[in-house]
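Lecture notes, continued. The same structure-token format from the folding unit now serves as the input rather than the output. Read the line below as a description of shape only.
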């Protein structure tokens, strides 16, 4: 079943959102050093904009993420690879596909503080997103 089709089931969609939020929380928690402090502070700021903001953003972005990830998932399967191993091997490409989605979303945001925090963190975002790609691959594989 395609990732975009899986999202049509509300229960599954809710489970995916929770899994992605846990993945993001875990990745933020792993950050160390000065850049880690900046990532954690930016994340805390974004969470403080309104309760449930991160969960809501994940939910809002999920259809666009699924659309961006579906061709990559299909490529993995066409090559006879597991989705999770393919994601791990192609983390830079997948990170850029995801960041293209978040870049568009950030540009459309009406929250100046969110735009500012995103702008400050965008430079280091690729490395952080790449780090999360294997976990994301496991989530995609779990639900498809």
């Amino acid at each position: 079943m395609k990732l975009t089709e899986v999202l049509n089931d509300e229960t599954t969609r809710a489970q995916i959102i929770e899994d992605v939020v846990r993945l993001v929380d875990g990745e933020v928690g792993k950050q160390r050093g000065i850049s880690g402090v900046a990532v954690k502070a930016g994340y805390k700021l974004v969470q403080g904009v309104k309760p449930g903001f991160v969960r809501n953003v994940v939910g809002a972005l999920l259809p666009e993420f699924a659309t961006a990830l579906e061709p990559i998932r299909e490529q993995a399967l066409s090559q006879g690879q597991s989705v999770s191993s393919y994601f791990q091997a192609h983390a830079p490409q997948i990170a850029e596909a995801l960041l293209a989605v978040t870049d568009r979303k950030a540009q459309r945001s009406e929250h100046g503080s969110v735009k500012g925090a995103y702008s400050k963190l965008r430079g280091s975002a690729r490395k952080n997103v790449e780090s999360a790609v294997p976990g994301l691959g496991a989530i995609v594989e779990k639900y498809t």
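Point for the exam: The mean pLDDT is 90.
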